[in-house]
Amino acid sequence: MENYKGKVINLKELKDLKIGFALTASYCNFKEVITYISKLIETGAKVVPIMSYNSYTYDTRFGKAEEFIAEIEEMTGEKIMKTLVDVEPLGPKDLIDIIVVAPCTGNTLAKLANGITDTSVLGAIKTMRRNDKPVVIAIATNDALALNMRNIFTLQNTKGITFVPFKQDNAKDKPYSLVAEWDKMVETIEDVAKGLE
Hints:
Blueprint: E1 2-4, E2 7-9, E3 18-23, H1 30-42, E4 46-51, H2 53-57, H3 65-76, H4 84-87, E5 98-104, H5 106-113, H6 120-129, E6 135-141, H7 149-156, E7 161-163, E8 166-170, E9 174-180, H8 185-194
Parallel strand pairs: 3-4, 3-5, 5-6, 6-7
Antiparallel strand pairs: 1-2, 6-9, 8-9
Helix pairs in contact: 1-3, 5-7
């Protein structure tokens, strides 16, 4: 047990933590990632959902946007934050303790590493970092071992940003692709929670 802002937190359960969970448009990972939203809720955490414009808007061969939205909103009991205006109060009003970006695309990685905040997810990260709150990134990008490697290195060396362990996705068919080890996401969030003061 540890104290965080007057709350007693059981780190094994993440009880009483407010976790922002942001999805970007790696659609093929949505079904798996959404199961981890449920797991976080089971630990006792409150999950505040955030989606980028692309992830919130487009249907793909992996599913319909409206079905993902309905599932996430029903699971969390919260309306999804989808605009810069929606996410702006997160930091100043102390609405969340940690933000998790899963899946985090190469596009989002590149913009974050270069200080660009033109989406709801990037705006949410910015508002959290201005208050020195932690960011957990679970990557899923086909160009990680090519154009995005320098951005990964930059972010790995940035205070307050932690990566969920990742691995090569499919060395034969997608030689530049990396994907988070989804089953290590909750453990990574627990580790980050230990550092909250």
